[in-house]
Design goal:
Number of helices: 10
Number of strands: 15
Shape: globular
Distance between the termini: 23 Å
Largest sheet: 5 strands, mixed
Radius of gyration: 19 Å
């Protein structure tokens, strides 16, 4: 397994995760935060603009290059296969998103620094200025499009149901009606469960809690993105993934809305990784390459 020892800034006093009741609540909270914090972002990641009549000069890319570091926000708790601490090498991180982030930083000619935050707080922390970009299995939902800027998609995911090995009669979304189904807060899976009549969603702030509760018999199933289900459902002897995955979606990197120059440079880096075959190699390395990736020209 290829690992990289990088600077990792951990969140000592981790803020309480946002337990949202729906997408609108998350958008409202993030918009409120953006209004409150305004120009109080951390100096290293604060957007700088130059006032020109009729024009706002975007210096986001210049800011990163001048600092010599790309600050990347992600959650490493239960982060397999995205980004997680290598159990054999304390302080070193691995995962398919780590490999992508390394490629992006190399393309920009800067070093990479991982800023560890709780998953539910990534977008508020981005808006607060804690880092330059967030990449952590974040879906390009319409609600998020109102408050952040998206990169081009770097991975196509789908939803996967996981149950205990002794479970019978659950293989589709319809089968989850009347069941307690765990998932991660702020995800497309949460939206699906909340919009499906008869399902009892159990929302958790971290991935590992959902699969732990399933193994302990506290819930009847878990619904989460396929890469997560492959890492946690398929590898747990008490659990199994069932049925065909459904509801395709796209993972994107998110930026502050004003950081256009930085987002365009990151898009160029992703395109180069696609055309060179590097992105395909990363997905093959972690067992994530499938036909769905053809939709974004990862061939």
């Amino acid at each position: 397994m290829n690992t990289m020892k990088i600077d990792a800034r951990h969140d000592g006093d981790r803020p309480a995760p946002l337990r949202r009741s729906g997408a609108a609540a998350a958008v409202a909270a993030a918009m409120a935060l953006a209004m409150v914090v305004g120009g109080c972002a951390a100096k290293s990641a604060t957007p700088q603009t130059t006032a020109v009549p009729g024009e706002v000069h975007d210096t986001s890319l210049d800011r990163v290059k001048k600092a010599g570091v790309l600050l990347w926000g992600a959650d490493v708790v239960g982060g397999i296969p995205y980004v997680y601490e290598d159990p054999q090498h304390k302080g070193q991180y691995t995962g398919f998103e780590m490999d992508i982030a390394k490629g992006i930083a190399a393309s920009l000619g800067v070093r990479l620094q991982l800023v560890v935050k709780a998953w539910d707080t990534l977008i508020p922390e981005l808006q607060r200025g804690s880092f330059d970009m967030a990449m952590n299995g974040i879906e390009d939902t319409p609600e998020r499009a109102q408050i952040v800027r998206f990169s081009e998609p770097y991975y196509i995911y789908s939803q996967q149901i996981t149950v205990r090995r002794d479970t019978k009669g659950i293989a589709t979304l319809e089968d989850l009606k009347g069941k307690r189904v765990a998932t991660l807060s702020g995800t497309a899976a949460e939206d699906i469960l909340r919009s499906t009549p008869g399902v009892q969603p159990v929302i958790n702030p971290e991935i590992i809690y959902s699969y732990r509760d399933l193994a302990d018999g506290k819930v009847d199933a878990v619904l989460l993105d396929k890469p997560i289900a492959v890492a946690y459902g398929a590898t747990n002897p008490k659990l199994m993934n069932v049925g065909e995955s459904f509801n395709e979606g796209r993972y994107v990197i998110v930026f502050r809305t004003e950081d256009r120059a930085l987002s365009e440079a990151v898009n160029a880096a992703i395109e180069q990784m696609k055309s060179s075959g590097e992105l395909k190699k990363i997905y093959e390395k972690y067992g994530l390459m499938d036909v769905h990736q053809q939709r974004i020209q990862v061939l």
